[in-house]
Specification:
The structure is a single chain. This protein is α+β, with helices and mostly antiparallel strands. 41% of the residues lie in helices and 24% in strands. A four-stranded antiparallel β-sheet has the order 3-2-4-5, with no helix packed on it. The protein has a two-stranded parallel ribbon with strand order 1-6. Helix 2 packs antiparallel against helix 3. The longest helix is centred in the first third of the chain and has 29 residues. The chain is elongated, with a radius of gyration of 25 Å. The two termini are 30 Å apart.
Length: 176
């Protein structure tokens, strides 16, 4: 039997809470953008310095070293605009951007093979809800779930089928 939440301690689920939850996980993007601005030029500078030390600053090796360092600087210049784009603030989500529906968890598929970005595949747990795409839960969500449990499912548009986030219906009261 799965863990059941106390009826007296249910949380109020509002669009504002959902938006806050969705935006709170974006802190890592800013760190990655900062690193993309900082590390490529520093790497190119280090490559230039070491190439100078190796070649002694003259001769045919120095010319080849300048060409190699030029490639490092070119790569750095290509990555910096990506970092700048990542630092620009994205449009804030509003209550109109999300839609929440209540659905029953039809099936829990444990260790289902899913295609990965590489050649192979990975095993992932999957939740299936009627009329929705697959949802890839966290280990905690899997541990607390049983088939037949009800969830509030967040999608980006009304009628959307891709679950962005889920909330257990026995832990939240929808106030939308």
């Amino acid at each position: 039997m799965a863990y059941k939440y106390s009826e007296e301690r249910k949380h109020i689920l509002t669009p504002e809470l959902v938006i806050h939850d969705m935006e709170s996980g974006k802190g890592g993007d800013r760190i990655m953008a900062f690193l993309m601005l900082l590390l490529p030029p520093l790497g190119a500078l280090a490559a230039t310095f070491f190439m100078y030390l190796i070649t002694g600053g003259e001769g045919a090796e120095f010319v080849v070293g300048i060409i190699v360092c030029g490639l490092f600087w070119l790569l750095a210049l290509l990555l910096v605009p990506v970092g700048i784009m990542m630092l620009k603030p994205s449009r804030k989500l509003t209550a109109a951007d999300i839609h929440i529906v209540k659905r029953t968890l039809d099936t829990i598929s444990y260790s289902e093979r899913q295609p990965s970005s590489g050649r192979g595949s990975v095993e992932r747990d999957v939740f299936y809800f009627a009329g929705m795409d697959k949802y890839f839960p966290s280990p905690t969500e899997v541990a607390l779930a049983e088939e037949g449990d009800e969830y509030y499912i967040v999608t980006y548009t009304e009628g959307g089928t891709y679950p962005v986030r889920i909330y257990r219906a026995d832990a939240y009261i929808w106030n939308g």
